[in-house]
TrEMBL record:
The gene is fbp. Residues 199-332 form the Fructose-1-6-bisphosphatase class 1 C-terminal domain. Pfam families: FBPase, FBPase_C. Its EC number is 3.1.3.11. InterPro entries: FBPase_C_dom (IPR044015), FBPase_class-1 (IPR000146), FBPase_N (IPR033391), FBPtase (IPR028343), Fructose_bisphosphatase_AS (IPR020548). It comes from Acidithiobacillus sulfuriphilus. Gene3D superfamilies: 3.40.190.80, Fructose-1,6-Bisphosphatase, subunit A, domain 1 (3.30.540.10). Keywords: Carbohydrate metabolism, Cytoplasm, Hydrolase, Magnesium, Metal-binding. This is Fructose-1,6-bisphosphatase class 1.
Length: 334
């Protein structure tokens, strides 16, 4: 009996596609997946491990941090800071980049992550996940400066997420399509289960937080009204809505069976052009979606082309089935 292709085997075989590869990247990704196994284990133990509930602190975005947010953040920092592969890290949970300890050599990569996305779902048994983006440091071997992380999403060398759902899954891409792995708990290894995930160009399923409807701009109002009109409206067919409220879970559903996801621009707070953060939510997810044949836009421009201006900047996000995303973009042009 064959156990299948392990994630470590897959990573090593994939990095051989890159001429001159030193193995640094394979090492980096392997260490990151160890952190994801640890975080998943804490999430699944939940109340048994005493890890649920608020930590009593706020992050840079003014959001209350959960105990599991901080445990997950620490797990990634400590799994990665000793490796010698990184020049710095940026996390949703930290105001400033995390510096690599003095005694450790500086590497050539930058890691950006949301340690546990879907905060409102952490304590209630709903799927959450870890999102990550890997960039090349502009200058290898020295401490990364904040400006080094401000690269457009097209520069990502790898993006992915771990989903702590009905099982622990790891999905990633290095630019050769999107592949998914499922944790086999009996041996503690992620095994390849989803090869070359693809998003159909069309869909009848959408994901949006409808309670924000009154704050949306006209193009999104029009698009969603048309979907909700179903067979009786201009689209002449019914659409189904799903909203988990954890981006990882909503994007995973789209990678598995198609759909469109919107967290659009809204007029609630002029300081916040959207809810989701560009560098460690929108960019890695947009990279995966494009690699799977879908599209990702703010409504007026491709997300991966945005030149970031700050570490925690927010953007409107519309991603998934190509024809639906293009329709929303066309409504913005109108
Ligand atoms: P978080 O990083 O604080 O968890 O916020 C991001 C999450 C996404 O996972 C999800 O798509 C969105 O916020 C849900 O927002 P809402 O509370 O409007 O449903
Ligand atoms: Mg998040």
């Amino acid at each position: 009996m064959h156990i299948g292709t392990t994630l470590s085997q897959f990573i090593i075989e994939e990095t051989r596609l890159y001429p001159g590869s030193t193995g640094d990247f394979a090492g980096l990704l392997n260490d990151l997946t160890t952190a994801c196994k640890f975080i998943g284990a804490q999430v699944y133990r939940g109340g048994l491990a005493g890890v649920l509930g608020s930590a009593g602190t706020d992050n840079v975005q003014g959001e209350t941090q959960k105990k599991l947010d901080l445990i997950s953040n620490e797990a990634i920092l400590k799994s990665m800071d000793w490796t010698g592969h990184l020049a710095g890290m940026v996390s949703e949970e930290m105001d400033n980049p995390y510096p690599i300890p003095h005694s450790i050599p500086r590497g050539k990569y930058l890691l950006l992550f949301d340690p546990l996305d879907g905060s409102s779902n952490i304590d209630v048994g709903i799927s959450v996940g870890t999102i990550f983006s890997i960039l090349k440091a502009p200058i290898a071997g020295r401490d990364a400066e904040p400006a080094d992380f401000l690269q457009p999403g097209v520069e990502q060398v790898c993006a992915g997420y771990a989903l702590y759902g009905s099982c622990n899954m790891l999905i990633y891409s290095t630019g050769y399509g999107v592949n998914g792995f499922t944790l086999e708990p009996s041996i503690g290894e992620y095994i390849l289960t989803h090869t070359q995930m693809r998003i159909p160009d069309d869909t009848s399923e959408y994901a949006i937080n409808m309670s924000n409807q009154r704050h949306w701009q006209e193009p999104v109002q029009r698009y969603i009204n048309e979907l909700n009109a179903g067979k009786d409206g201009p689209r002449k067919r019914d659409f189904n809505m799903r909203w988990v409220g954890s981006m990882v879970a909503d994007v995973h559903r789209i990678l598995c069976r198609g759909g469109i996801f919107l967290y659009p621009f809204d007029l609630r707070d002029p300081q916040k052009p959207g809810k989701l953060r560009l560098l460690y939510e929108a960019n890695p997810m947009s990279y995966l979606i494009e690699q799977a044949g879908g599209a990702a836009s703010t409504g007026t421009r491709r997300i991966l082309d945005i030149e970031p201006t700050s570490l925690h900047q927010r953007v409107p996000v519309i991603l998934g089935a190509r024809n639906e995303v293009e329709r929303v973009v066309a409504y913005h042009r109108d």
